Amino acid sequence: MTAAHCVESGSYMNQGTFWIGNTAHSVTALTAHNGWFSSGRNLEVGHDIALLALSAPVRNVRPASLYYGSGEDLRVGNYVGYGETGTGITGAVSGSGGTKRAGQNIIGLGSRLGYNNNLLVSDFDDPRTADWWDSLSRPLGLEYQLGRGDSGGGLFIEGRVAGVHSFISSVDDRLDSDYGDYSASTRVSTKKNWIWGGLNALSRLFHRPSVTASAPSVPPPAAGPAGSPLLPSDLMGISPEFDYFDPNYTVNIIEDDGFYAEELAIPEPTALLGLGVIGLFLAKSRRSPARKR
Question: How far apart (Å, rounded) are the C-alpha atoms in residues 263 and 259?
């Protein structure tokens, strides 16, 4: 599971590698939420989510469960990502990404910051000036803000995946991940039926290897998503040990033509051949750079 904007930029992702430790799993198929396309790729409506299918099962790793409740508001969230790092004063330092880092923040429904409730949001609080009367403005010891390169990572509540990192925004017109900036993640609980429907659709592709997905009838990738407060940027440099793509595998694009209708046949993650329920690191072919936030 990743962000939809991570799998397209100029062209759809044609090759990908999912790493678990030192083991590589090629990406063989993907699908993105139809709301991502119908909204004109508007990050603020909260449909920035995609699913990836892998070439082989992931062994000896216990996948995280998804958060299906409705009680995310004002909970402590644990953010995980590979993006750039820095401090609240310096903001993100260019070139500092590529290492998995984690931290915490008080998360709220999107409406607390004027967004759609398909999003989970947080603000990067300066402990020296925090508004203690504001429910979101409670700086934590491991206060965390998303940075460029964190897109597609996971937001966890008590070990369950509650969000997929989507974008950052700012009130000072500087999207540098300093104090006062906002983080936004696609809310998983509002996508649970779509997720299971999408996994079923991808699973059928694996059980019928002779089937070839046709070109999707979705709009071509745009230079930048409509309504986005961010500017597109190239994929962060991939460490040499991870810069690997198996030429035997290319990515099939599966159109979301009504996954909600398939939600009733809910499979267990372990029963889906080669499906990655969570993806914390996704490498992409140089031929198709991603927009990383």
Answer: 7
